[in-house]
Amino acid sequence: MKTRLKSGLIMAPLLVIVFLGGYFLVAGVFALTILALREYEDAFGARRPARWPLLASAIILYAGYLVPPLRAYITLPWVFIALVLCFLSMFAMEKRDLTQGFVTFVGVFYIVFLAFHIVLVDTYYATPIPITG
After folding, report:
1. Residue of 26, 71, 94, 99 with fewest CB within 10 Å of its CB?
2. Helix residue spans in the chain (DSSP H)
3. Model's pTM, two decimal places?
4. pLDDT tens, 30-49?
5. H or E segment and range at residue 69
């Protein structure tokens, strides 16, 4: 019973953030993305991904979304920027190997890009659909 109560107390603020939507949801999903990236880094032990491409890609994507004129145009440039950041992280070959570069690349798209789709779904459903007659 205590476990269910603890889970409910943790999930209640998340449910409120989802219902509020908008900037509250962006901030909540960004915070969860940062926590997920931290867990992702710790999962690989010695072959952990480079931290700065993961954080930089998350910051660029969410900050670009917060600027209304960029909302419709942020995804494609972000993919290019994220790829460049991942490849730049592999230039220090004496510190990193190809496996760490691949883990960084997968982490950027698996965590940051897919978590960002929660925000995109909220934006899609918050936009009124014009009715033509």
Report:
1. 94
2. 2-20, 22-42, 51-66, 75-89, 98-107, 114-126
3. 0.77
4. 988 998 999 998 888 877 88
5. none
